[in-house]
Amino acid sequence: MKGDVLIVKDLPSHLQSLDLEAIGSQITDNDISKEAEPSEFIRTALPVLQKNGVVHFLGFGNRLGFDSVPADLQRLRCRCNFHALKFAPEIQKLGSLLVQRLRGVSAMQTEMDTQLFGSNMLDRPFGDKSTDDAGGPSRYLALHLRFEEDMVAYSLCEFGGGDEERRELQAFRETHFPALVARLRNTTVSPEELRSQGRCPLTPEEAGLILAALGYVRGTFIYVAGSQIYGGATRLRPLTRLYPNLVTKEDILSSDELAPLKNFSSRVSALDFIACASSDVFAVTDSGSQLSSLVSGHRVYHGRGRAPTLHPNRKRYAQILSEEAGIEWAGFQKRVRTMVDEYKRVRARPRGRTVYRQPRTPGCMCRADDDGSVDF
Predict the structure, then answer these.
(1) Percent of the chain at pLDDT above 90?
(2) Are the CB atoms for 196 and 319 separated by under 8 Å?
(3) Are 336 and 213 in contact (CB under 8 A)?
(4) Closest CA relative to residue 200, chosen from 281, 291, 321, 310
(5) Cβ atoms of residues 286 and 201 within 8 Å
(6) Cβ(104)–Cβ(132) under 8 Å?
(7) How far apart are CA 194 and CA 321, in angstroms?
(8) How much is the pTM?
């Protein structure tokens, strides 16, 4: 960032003793709206900076909007997100170990590897000189299953568990989502309608059927990202029957290696991010997931067109599944492949969409010509 922003570790000595709150130099989310245009930052923050010489963005999360942003600011934002931001060294080393064990090789090979691990790539994944690259790297698919209990409960959908499932999920909602429960007291929600609208998370079985329809064979090596799957091994069984070579970070790394991450959910998620970003294919089951969105953006930006991401359209898929009684496997395959292919078309970022997920935009990955056209 040094070519764009001067970054210092400490305030100048004449500013260190100031009470920033007392002099009015603190800016919070209440002062600037979400997705604000640059002009709002200039109106709000610049006068404070000019008056006091310092501005403190305290607990600030209201990022700059993605539209109506000059190309130079968009370029800076992309350089920050896709180049400057790095995981902490201990995460880089453990992530390097995880990916090398998944691949079965000791040498990292891609632009993505360089970006994710920097100088903290490990030379030997197993600490064993017998490990080499003679057989070439193993290929793997990363599947982000968003089927944890909180996701399932919040969706208000039903997943075939009958009255016991309804009672269990309702109890979870009352404990963890009281505002949602209060909002629903005078409202009737139809699980069938939610499913038809594509608002229900995909079950492991439904995700497995998509992969099978796309032609992934039984021996495909699959890394499963995410927390504990609702329903545990029983819910996963249909997927493991289709694809027995399913692993998680807990299968690849020892409990001792994972110990420093215990009780730090964001650090655990960082490992999933790394494994998903580095995979040969990344399969998303919930396009609204923050992890899936950020991984997808990194794969577009650093993948050089060789890092495919599978995005099923849940609304379209729900329609296909509702007709499964009258559809043969060949027809199911064709419709699923068409559904996935539609998302894979290269297009510029639509207005209002995040640059972090869709970096194909002027100032980031694209060049806008005078006639308004965009080159990738």
Answers:
(1) 47
(2) yes
(3) yes
(4) 321
(5) yes
(6) no
(7) 14
(8) 0.85
Question: Using an 8 Å Cβ cutoff, are 277 and 116 in contact?
Answer: yes
In the numeric block, the tokens 């899936």 are attached to 292
Lookup: tokens for 343:
């998302």
3-class secondary-structure state, position 42: helix
Question: What is the chain's Cα-based Rg?
Answer: 24
Per-residue model confidence as pLDDT tens digits over 259-310: 988 888 889 999 999 999 999 999 998 877 888 989 999 999 998 888 999 9
| pLDDT on residue 131 | 44
CB 308 within 8 A of CB 186: no
| DSSP string of 61-72, one letter each residue | --PBPSSS--HH
Among 20, 73, 71, smallest CA distance to 49 is for: 20
Q: Where are the domains of the chain?
A: 13-65, 89-127+136-147+201-344, 149-197
With contact defined as beta carbons under 8 Å apart, do 100 and 316 qualify? no
Whether 248 contacts 98, CB under 8 Å: no
Could you report the per-residue pLDDT of 75-113, keeping only the tens digit for each? 888 989 998 999 999 999 999 999 999 988 766 667 888
| CATH number, span 89-127+136-147+201-344 | 3.40.50
> In 3D, which of 307, 308, 257, 249 has the Cα closest to residue 273?
249
Task: Name the nearest CA neighbour of 219 among 144, 324, 140.
Answer: 140
Collapsing DSSP states into helix, strand and coil, what is residue 85?
coil
Per the document, the length of the chain is 376
